[in-house]
Amino acid sequence: MRHTTLSSKGQVTIPAEIRTALDLQTGDRLRLEVTADGFTAVVERAPKVSEVRGVFRHVARPGTTRAQERAAFEEAVAGKHTP
């Protein structure tokens, strides 16, 4: 586990080994979530456009609901869907 300090502007520096492990690059978007216990925060890199490009070609058909499209997107992001 690594520690970092919150600045007066609400900013943190992500340690280099974590940036490397998450393949973070300048300008990447991060997803932040506080877990139910209220003591744990999850940080993950939001998927890049190139990683999810084309995931809707199998489901974006007339009659497809938003929920079905969202489920297909989430499966693709999780790596469960192969284009």
UniProtKB/TrEMBL annotation:
UniProt cross-references to Pfam families, sorted A to Z: MazE_antitoxin (PF04014)
SMART domains, sorted: SpoVT_AbrB
Residues in coiled coil: none
Molecular function as annotated in GO: DNA binding
Domain SpoVT-AbrB residues, every copy: 1-48
Superkingdom in the source lineage: Bacteria
Signal peptide extent: none
Keywords: DNA-binding
Designated name of the protein: SpoVT-AbrB domain-containing protein
Species for this entry: Deinococcus marmoris
